[in-house]
Design brief:
Length: 183
């Protein structure tokens, strides 16, 4: 690569009809300055490009890190969501089992209460039927006793002398005697 010093140190051979040395030197100085400025600018741009590349590399590294972080965050969110869904499913399943157990237990309790009530109703019906039977037996005994007492009363009445009938019969007999005496 050509440097400004190479341009400055360049010497041209002299010829018979050559160029004006001052003009050539002035031009070479201008070219040297322009070339030096171009080299400085080139160096400055290379340095800036290096900084930009480093910044770009840093941004790419940050971007990659962010992508990895996002992937990890997404996986974590998916895991958390899956765990939450799994936990919710387990809770629903446990609640359903508990509800089923409570329903079964309530059904068994209701059946037991209904069986107890049915047993009590049967016992009350049996007691009622026993009482009705005893009532009928009592009434039959009472009827039998009343009939026996009535028979005794009828017998006693039959055995008792009928005073009125005797009086009447005596009275008729006395009248019949008097009628005969009157005759």
């Amino acid at each position: 690569m050509l440097t400004p010093m190479d341009i400055h140190a360049k010497e041209f051979g002299r010829s018979f009809r050559g160029f004006d040395e001052t003009e050539v030197n002035d031009f070479l100085n201008e070219v040297m300055q322009a070339y030096a400025a171009a080299l400085d600018e080139n160096e400055h741009l290379r340095a800036e490009l290096g900084r930009e590349r480093a910044a770009g590399d840093e941004f790419r590294r940050i971007e990659q890190s962010m992508r990895e972080t996002l992937i990890v965050a997404q996986k974590t969110a998916e895991e958390v969501t899956a765990n939450a869904k799994r936990n919710a499913d387990q809770m629903l399943e446990a609640a359903a089992k508990e509800a089923q157990n409570l329903r079964r237990e309530a059904t068994l309790q209701a059946k037991a209460q209904m069986d107890d009530a049915a047993d009590k109703v049967r016992a009350v019906v049996i007691e009622y039927e026993r009482l009705v039977h005893e009532k009928h037996q009592f009434l039959r005994r009472m009827k039998s006793n009343v009939q026996a007492e009535l028979a005794l009363i009828n017998d006693a009445i039959a055995e008792m002398p009928d005073m009125a009938a005797e009086k009447k019969a005596n009275h008729e007999a006395d009248e019949g005697k008097q009628d005969k005496e009157d005759i």
